[in-house]
Specification:
single chain; alpha/beta; Rossmann fold; 38% helix
Length: 193
């Protein structure tokens, strides 16, 4: 398969590319790569399909931790545009352009306990999971759509000076993406452990 990986230069994106590149042709995409896209710039997403991919994986999305009282309306709109609306637009464009056997894999997030400042992220992640579940059911013959919802990544915690034991290895997270791309799941959320 030819697979477009959006966010290929980040921690998770690099691990996903490594997990897929032995068996597939990878088109690495970031805001600064030769093939560029930015989830906050919806117009930039259309060019991804000039490479005629069979699958699209999005690892680029995140929402910073910010308490509700510290959020401005502009920050809320920007975070929704970047992680939620950007991925929905990427999925919409992918569904129109990928072959019926293709795959769309988005990135959500999950935490076992509420974390201060995670309210907007929780809203976005729940929205993505519901979106994928519904779209997966309404398009039984088009490209498959799924979402990976990792919690804390071990390597991210360690880079922050925290104990990495509470996180999941980035290699385990990347394997979840690989299994969804190569498998037959449709409309599912995978929480790597």
């Amino acid at each position: 398969m030819k697979i477009v990986v959006v966010g290929a230069t980040g921690l998770v994106g690099r691990a996903v590319v490594a997990a897929l590149e032995a068996r597939h042709e990878i088109v690495s995409v970031s805001r600064r790569s030769p093939v560029r896209a930015d989830l906050r710039d919806l117009a930039s997403l259309g060019g991804l399909f000039e490479t005629a991919p069979d699958a699209v994986v999005c690892c680029a999305a995140n929402v910073p931790l910010r308490p509700l009282g510290d959020l401005t309306a502009e920050q809320v709109a920007d975070d929704l545009r970047g992680k939620l609306l950007g991925q929905v637009e990427l999925a919409r464009l992918s569904a129109e352009r990928l072959p019926a056997g293709g795959s769309i894999t988005l990135t959500g997030g999950t935490f076992t306990e509420p974390i201060p400042g995670s309210g907007l992220g929780a809203l976005v992640n729940a929205g993505l999971e519901s979106f994928v579940r519904s779209v997966g059911a309404e398009r039984p013959h088009g490209p498959r759509i799924n979402v990976v919802s990792p919690g804390w990544i071990r390597e991210t915690l360690e880079a922050m000076g925290e104990d990495g034991a509470g996180g999941t290895s980035v290699a385990v997270v990347a394997e979840a993406y690989r299994e969804l791309v190569e498998g037959d799941a449709r409309g599912t959320t995978v929480v790597p452990r």
